[in-house]
Amino acid sequence: MSKTIISEGKTTAEAVENGLKKLKVSKDMVDVKVIEEGDKRSFYSILAPRVVKVELTVKEGVTAKREVHESRSEVHHAGRRPPNQNMEEIEEASSNIKTFLDKFLKKGVTYEIKIENYGINININGDNVNHLIGYRGETINNLQTIISAIANKNATAKVKIFLDVAGYREKRTKTLEDLAEKIAATVIRTGKSISLEPMTAYERKVIHSKLQSKPQIRTFSKGEEPYRKVVISLNESK
Questions:
Q1: Which of 116, 202, 104 is nearest to 159 (CA)?
Q2: In the predicted model, what is the mean pLDDT of residues 11-39?
Q3: How far apart are CA 72 and CA 76, in angstroms?
C-alpha cells in the first residue's frame, strides 16, 4: 500500500517541501493533492499568508532511497510514459480547469484553454498579472501544480498541463537558453564544472535540451527537490 502523509506550510511549495523531507523522496516520486479545508476560500488563496495543507502519496513501486538521475539522455526518454489520450477525460479536465479559473481569477484577467496533442495549454493574460508569476516563477509553478491536481482528479492516466502567464514561460525559456550557452562557453574555456541555481524540472529540461547538441559538454542534475540543480561540465569521454 502506498504511503500517504499530510503536510503543512505557508505556501503550497513549502508544504510540499516539508512533506518530501518527511518521506525522504523527490517530488517526481509522489502524487500531490491540495486539501480543501472548511473555508472554501483557502483553496483559491495560494497567495495569501495562511496555512496550506497538501496530501502527498508515494507512487507505487517507489522506495525512499531510490536515486533519480537526470541527464541529457532523459530529454529523449522523458515522454516514455504515454500521456492520457482519452479525449472524454481530457475534455472533462478542461471543463474542471475552467470552473476553477472562473472562480480564482480576478476581473480584468482573461484566459484561454486549448487542447493540443492530448495536452491542455492554458494562457492567462491581463493587467497586473505579475502576482500570478511570483519571484522566479514560484507562484506560476504552484498554480500549475494545483491546476494539474484538478485536471487529474478523475483521470485514469495523467493529463498533461502547460500553464503560461503573460508569456512568462517563453521569456524564461529564452533566458535559460542564453544562460546555458554562456555557462557552457565558460566551462569549455576553463575546464571547470559549474552548478546552476536550483530549478524546476521544466527549467532543468530546458538547459539539458539546449546543450544536448554540444559534444564537448555534459549536463546532469543533482540534489533533491526543490533544491535540485543542473551541473554543466566537460564531456571527458569526447
A1: 116
A2: 77
A3: 8
Stretch 93-110: mean pLDDT: 94
| Per-residue pLDDT at 193 | 96
* Residue 146: all three cell numbers together: 494545483
Q: Is the peptide bond before 226 cis (omega within 30 degrees of 0)?
A: yes
Distance between terminal CA atoms of the chain? 46
Give the global pTM: 0.61
> DSSP of 180-231, one letter per residue?
HHHHHHHHHHH---EEPPP--HHHHHHHHHHHTT-TTEEEEEES-TTS-EEE
CATH code matching the domain that covers 87-166, chosen among 3.30.300.20, 3.40.50.2300, 3.40.640.10, 3.40.718.10: 3.30.300.20
What is the distance of C-alpha 132 from the center of its chain? 15
The answer for 137, left when phi > 0, alpha when psi is -120 to 50, beta otherwise, is left
Mean pLDDT, range 128-155, rounded to an integer: 90
What number of CA atoms fall less than 13 Å from residue 155's CA on the CB side? 27
For helices 87-104 and 138-151, what crossing angle results, to 10°?
130
SS3 68: coil
CATH number attached to the domain at 170-234: 3.30.1370.50
Output the CA–CA distances (angstroms, integers) from residue 177 to 173, 183, 208, in the order listed: 6, 10, 9
